[in-house]
Write a structure and sequence with these properties.
GO biological process, one term: putrescine biosynthetic process from arginine, via agmatine
Distance between the termini: 27 Å
Order of helices and strands: HHEHHEHEHEHEHEHEHEH
Cofactor: Mn(2+)
Largest sheet: 8 strands, parallel
Radius of gyration: 18 Å
Number of strands: 8
InterPro entries: HutG, Ureohydrolase, Ureohydrolase_dom_sf, Ureohydrolase_Mn_BS
Keywords: Histidine metabolism, Hydrolase, Manganese, Metal-binding
Structural class: alpha/beta
Strand order of the largest sheet: 2-1-3-8-7-4-5-6
Shape: globular
Enzyme class: hydrolase
Number of helices: 11
Helix content: 25-40%
C-alpha cells in the first residue's frame, strides 16, 4: 500500500463502478504485485533552492502534485504504483539525493517508468544517479532533455538547485562517457553570459523560450526528434518555471515569458511515445505561491499526458 502519510492525497470523486468512471485515485496501487507501470516517487526537498538563494517551499511540491493528479480521469490500461517519498533531513541534500537515486534504480530495474515529483531541481542529480546505476543504462548513451528557463550548470562547490547538470557532466566525464544535454525554453535574461559560455563549452544544444512559440511547433518537434535520435536512453526533466508565470505562478522563480503549455504538452507527448524514454521528473513546484493550485494542475496535466501516451491512450 501507499505510505499512510500520503494515502489521503489519493482521494477524489467516485462516479460509480466500472472502467468508464476510473480516475487516478482508483488506479494507484491496485495492480497485482510485479505488474509494471508508472512509478510515482516524491522528493521532498527545497534545500537546493535555499542554497541557490531562491524562494523555498518546493518541499511540499510532491503532495500538491499528487492531490492534483488524484481526480484526473484514468484509462483502464493505466497502472500506477506510488512508492512514497524521499525526504531531505537536516539540510543533508547529498544524502537525500543518494537515497532518491537508490529508489529510482530499484523502480527502473523493476521495469517501471519512474516519475519523480520534486522538490527543487536538485532532484535531478538523484534521478540521474539512479538511472546511471540501473541495468537500463548498461552500454547505452544517456541523453537528458530539460524543459527549463535555466541551464542549471553553475560551477559551484556546494551542490544546489542551480548545479545538477554541471554535476552530471562531471560524473559522466569521470565515467568516460559523453555529456548529452539539451534544453528547451532557455530565458536569455535568466542566464548570464558565463552560463551560455559554459553551455557552449559542454556542447549543450538549446532553444530559447522565444524559439518555442506555438507558431514554431514543427521546428521544436524536429529539434526534439534530433535529440531522441542521438541517444539510446532518454531522461526527461521538467522545471515548471519553463511555463509562463500566469500558468505556473507557484514555482521557485516565475517566468516573465515562458513556453506555452500547449508546446510543452506537445514535446511531452512526443517523448512519451518514444520507447527510449526511461525516467521523468517534474520539479520546482512551490505550493506557497500557487494561486488556485494552477501550477500543480499544470504539472498534473503534464504527468497525465506522459502516462496516458505511454499506455497508448490517445485521448489525453
Amino acid at each position: 500500500m501507499t505510505n499512510p502519510t500520503i494515502q489521503h492525497l489519493w482521494t477524489g470523486r467516485d462516479d460509480g463502478p466500472g472502467a468508464e468512471h476510473r480516475r487516478w485515485h482508483h488506479a494507484v496501487n491496485t495492480a497485482q504485485a510485479g505488474t509494471t507501470g508508472i512509478a510515482i516517487l516524491g522528493f521532498r526537498s527545497d534545500e537546493g533552492v535555499r542554497r541557490n538563494k531562491g524562494r523555498v517551499g518546493a518541499v511540499d511540491g510532491p503532495a500538491s502534485i499528487r492531490s492534483a493528479l488524484a481526480p484526473m480521469a484514468a484509462p483502464a490500461e493505466l497502472l500506477v504504483h506510488d512508492l512514497g517519498d524521499t525526504s531531505v533531513e537536516d539540510g543533508n541534500l547529498e544524502d537525500g539525493q543518494e537515497r532518491l537515486g537508490a529508489a529510482v534504480r530499484q523502480a527502473l530495474d523493476a521495469g517501471h517508468l519512474p516519475v519523480i515529483l520534486g522538490g527543487g531541481h536538485e532532484t535531478a542529480f538523484g534521478t540521474y544517479t539512479g538511472l546511471r546505476a540501473s541495468r537500463l543504462s548498461d552500454g547505452r548513451r544517456i541523453g537528458i532533455i530539460n524543459l527549463d528557463a535555466h541551464f542549471d550548470l553553475r560551477p559551484e562547490a556546494i551542490p544546489s538547485s542551480g548545479t545538477p547538470f554541471r554535476q552530471v557532466a562531471e560524473a559522466e566525464r569521470a565515467l568516460g562517457h559523453g555529456f548529452s544535454y539539451t534544453v528547451l525554453g532557455i530565458s536569455q535574461p535568466g542566464n548570464t553570459e558565463a552560463l551560455f559560455q559554459t553551455a557552449r563549452d559542454l556542447g549543450v544544444k538549446y532553444l530559447l523560450d522565444e524559439e518555442c512559440t506555438e507558431s514554431r511547433t514543427e521546428q521544436v518537434r524536429q529539434f526534439t526528434q534530433d535529440f531522441i535520435d542521438s541517444v539510446d536512453v532518454v531522461y526527461l526533466t521538467i522545471d515548471l518555471d519553463v511555463l509562463p508565470a500566469y500558468v505556473a505562478p507557484g514555482v521557485s522563480a516565475p517566468a516573465s515569458y515562458g513556453v506555452p503549455l500547449s508546446v510543452v504538452l506537445d514535446v511531452c507527448r512526443q517523448l512519451a511515445r518514444s520507447p527510449k524514454l526511461a525516467v521523468v521528473d517534474v520539479v520546482e513546484l512551490n505550493p506557497r505561491f500557487d494561486d488556485d493550485s494552477r501550477t500543480a494542475r499544470a504539472a498534473a496535466r503534464l504527468i497525465h499526458t506522459i502516462a496516458t501516451e505511454r499506455t497508448g491512450n490517445r485521448h489525453a
